[in-house]
Amino acid sequence: xxxxxxxxxxxxxxxxxxxxxxxxxxxxxxVYIGYPTGYISxxxxxxxxxxxxxxxxxxxxxxxxxxxxxLGHGVQNSSNELTEIPSKIEVMxxxxxxxxxxxxxxxxPKDELTRLLNKxxxxxxxxxxxxxxxxxxxxxxxxxxPQGEVYVYVGGFAVKHIGTYQAKAVNYDWEQHAKDTWWxxxxxxxxxxxxxxxxxxxxxxxxxxxxx
Length: 212
Hints:
Blueprint: H1 2-24, E1 26-34, E2 41-43, E3 49-51, E4 57-60, E5 63-65, E6 75-76, E7 81-84, E8 88-95, E9 100-107, H2 110-119, E10 121-123, E11 133-135, E12 137-145, E13 149-156, E14 160-166, E15 168-170, H3 174-181, H4 192-198, H5 200-206
Parallel strand pairs: 1-12
Antiparallel strand pairs: 1-6, 1-7, 2-5, 2-8, 3-4, 3-8, 8-9, 9-15, 10-11, 12-13, 13-14
């Protein structure tokens, strides 16, 4: 009987430890997209994804990126929910400024992401409920910039840069990009240059970017 008193607590601890390790692999966050002011872009939804170690897709992100953005900030692009922490990112976008597609796949610092998303907390200083803790980081922010530069941050109460990457200029079928990305319409705006012209008013409204 004594043997069970020893084995059962050990078994319970093993189960708790395993559950804790699995829990650390997921966290509640949303994906946000952004760009420097004036650099209008459109993420291809089919080829903008977070991936795990097995190259399985965790979540898609992408679409029109037309806010008055800046590096380190973005607009929410995926729901904020319990999600596996990624090991890799694939990102593809169309730059209106350059009339060019850019694409890249990069390794992310998963250990750092895990630490930041799981452990970094802030006291709720603006609440009367003393001792309440809030996530310091609950966003993964993907910014793209001229010449194929990609900046990845974690954000929330604070913003922390975790990686800079270089995408490559690629050729991609315009109609396929529309099918990948434009969920709300069946019509493809042709030719591609006509779609680029439609962004001119947006660029004038939020400023311009020097890509020289």
